[in-house]
Amino acid sequence: MIRSSICTPTHFSFVSDLGEVKSSESFWRDCCLYSQKLRLVKENLDGQSTLTAVLFDSTPYSFGYKLFALLINEFEVVLPNNSQPCTLQDAASHADIVCGNALGDMARSKVWVDGLPDSELNRMSDNIDWPLCGSVVFSTSGSTGKSKQIRKSWQSLQLELDTLLTTFDMSSVKTFISTVPHYHIYGLLFRLLLPMKLGAQIYPTKEYPEHIVPLVKTAGKQHCILISSPAFLKRLCNDNVLSVSADRFCHIFSSGGKLEQDTATKLYAQMRFSICEIYGSTESGGIAHRKQTNGPDALWTLFRGMSISAKAETQQLVLRSPYLNFQPLAMDDKVALHASGQFKLLGRIDRTVKVEEKRVNLSDLERTLEAHAWVQSCKVILLEGKRTTLAAVVVLKQEKPAYESKRRLNQALRQHLASKFELICIPKKWRYVEEFPINNQGKTTAAALEKLFE
Amino acid sequence: MADENLRVVVKKLIIESLDLEDITPEEIIDDEPLFIDGLGLDSIDALELGLAVKKQFGVKIDANSEDTKQHFASVNSLCDFISSNTEG
After folding, report:
1. Tens of pLDDT along A122-140?
2. Within an 8 Å CB–CB cutoff, is residue A423 touching chain B?
3. What is the DSSP string of A93-111?
4. ipTM for the complex shown
5. In Å, how far is A356's CA from the nearest CA of chain B?
6. What's the CATH number where A61 sits?
7. B48 vs A387, A407, A410: nearest CB
8. How far is A424 from chain B (nearest CA, A)?
9. Which of A316, A328, A265 is nearest to A292 (CA)?
10. CB < 8 Å to A386, chain B
């Protein structure tokens, strides 16, 4: 392979948790060594058509060069969406090899590439380039049900990357800070591949606003991009330690869920800076973007090449995206189209499930419960078991209602629902929480809600 | 009239077989309706409870649905039904 300066970005660097800086030279060198290991592994696995690798590595740097080496060696790369032992075990059981620092435990049953010796490797051999093809399998977070596997061609991710580079002016950027991990599609594109293309410095994931302050303080004007989520921004606006350094940001991105209007407005007031929201899903990739200020709900603008329509009866958004070869994809959101080509999102489409042959609209149940004077917000889920039943997780309003026991509270809410729903369609199990459980993407997953009932 | 022991057994059976939460046997009121209003059990619970009662006490649920409804109306009536079908 010949290294071309057009394909291979060279100015990026990674900062480790301990503050050590790894250059792009070091990245490509490590990529090359890993690639040689993979080639040896591949020779031993000969005879199989498409080889699958599971990759989970907690540091963006090692994740990055291992991902590139895998793609170059034509492995299909499966990216688990968390490092829980069950998730990794499950992913590893379907794969030919396992890669990354989190998968050492699997070394007994699978080839763990990281654990192979370096001795036979030729350090000075072949040049390595930015991969051009291959496929990556993401796992969705499962906020609307079970986690799903989504296969993406590497080309479609590159297409999206090109779109991002032409849509947003990022020419002044030197530093990428992220509150989201690198193994989801949003993180992979925005916090790993994008800064590599731009030749920026990539910091490890920061969870607290306080940890970001020193990084932006020392940066120049408009030098920083922050890749974040609504979960992070919601907390930031309660004590905005970044407001004094707002001029250091070139963009602050938010994706992975809905940024509440209230949060966006507060942040704008504190920072005089608009958060750039990205709308999309693992399945769809990025669809549109918008910036909220202090005005009313801003319209979304489609990324280049996208077209959308609304289903006549349900208003469900149907996407045709160049990343998906323009195959129509129905999203879980309702949409109102505007003449300008922009659009407004009108909320999720209703979720309907069957309980003992009775069709019940979970969204309707939730709306009805939320209309009760004591209920702040709630989620209703289907619990599979000996008998499939409905279960509700409720956040009560702060001014706590007077009730003598949890049972009485359950009864009151059940009675409220009974005015509209059949008995079978009323949740049987109830949990009252201060806040819904969220994962590191700031999403409330069906699995996390189910866990409350174990 | 069924004895207190049987009532406790039946209440425990109701809670266990229907996987009820947030309620103890003591909190189930002897003469309160089991279905709809009182405990809020539904028609599927009725089937489940019927199965559990058959299994534990070996009593037959009779073919007349009105009678069955009566028998399953409350803990008291269910206990009467069980004891009259197991003793004689």
Report:
1. 655 567 889 999 999 998 7
2. yes
3. HT-SEEESGGGGGGGGTSE
4. 0.82
5. 8
6. 3.40.50
7. A387
8. 6
9. A265
10. 19
| CATH, residue B55 | 1.10.1200.10
Share of chain B above pLDDT 90, in %: 40
Q: Which of B19, B27, B44 sits opposite A356 (nearest CB)?
A: B44
pLDDT value at residue A444: 87
Q: Which residues does A170 contact at the CB level (< 8 Å), separation at least 6?
A: A194, A198, A225, A250, A251
Rounded-to-integer distance, Cα B22 and Cα A454, Å? 14
Same domain, yes or no: A125 and A159: no
Number of domains in chain A: 3
Q: Is the CB of B40 less than 8 angstroms away from the CB of A411?
A: yes
Q: Cβ separation of A356 and B21 shorter than 8 Å?
A: no
Query: Within this chain, do residues A124 and A159 fall inside the same structural domain, yes or no?
Result: no
How many domains does the structure of chain B reveal? 1
Full-model pTM = 0.77
Answer yes or no: is A239 within a domain.
Answer: yes
Interface contact B36-A423, CB threshold 8 A: yes
- Which residues contact residue A47 at a Cβ distance below 8 angstroms, ignoring those fewer than 6 apart? none
- B19 and A386 within 8 Å at the Cβ level: the answer is yes
Using the beta-carbon criterion (under 8 Å), do B22 and A385 form an inter-chain contact? Answer: no
| Chain A residues closer than 8 Å to B23 by CB | 407
Least confident of A5-9, A15-19, A58-62, A127-131: A5-9
Distances (CA, A) of A265 to A280, A377, A443, B48: 22, 21, 21, 52
Residues of A (249-308) whose Cβ lies below 8 Å from B: none
Using the beta-carbon criterion (under 8 Å), do A407 and B43 form an inter-chain contact? Answer: no
Among chain A residues, the shortest Cα distance to B40 is held by: A423
Asked if pLDDT for residue A367 goes beyond 60, the answer is: yes
pLDDT digits (tens, 9 = 90+) for B13-47: 999 999 999 999 999 999 988 887 778 888 788 88
Query: Same domain for A59 and A159?
Result: no
Question: Hey, which bits of A158-200 come out as E strands?
Answer: 175-178
Euclidean distance between CA atoms B31 and B45, whole angstroms = 18
CATH number at residue A162: 3.40.50.12780
Q: How far is CA A97 from the centre of its chain?
A: 25
Please tell me the distance in Å from B85's CA to the nearest CA on chain A.
Answer: 29
Whether A24 is covered by a domain: the verdict is: yes
What tens digit of pLDDT does each residue of A153-170 get? Answer: 999 999 999 999 999 999
Q: How confident is the model at residue A143 (pLDDT cuts 50, 70, 90)?
A: low
Structural domain that includes position A60: 13-132
3-state SS assignment for residue A370: helix
The verdict on residue A102 lying in a domain is yes
Number of CB pairs, chain A paired with chain B, less than 8 A apart? 27
- Which residues in chain A are contacts of B43 at CB distance < 8 A? 423-424
Say whether both A29 and A102 belong to one domain: yes
> Quick one: tokens of A418?
């009974």
Asked if residue A329 belongs to a domain, the reply is no
Range of the domain at B69: 4-87
- List, as ranges, residues 360-389 from A with C-beta within 8 Å of B: 385-387
Who contacts A27 (Cβ-Cβ below 8 Å, separation ≥6)? Answer: A12, A14, A61, A64, A65
What is the per-residue pLDDT for A204?
Answer: 94
Q: Do B19 and A424 touch (CB under 8 A)?
A: no
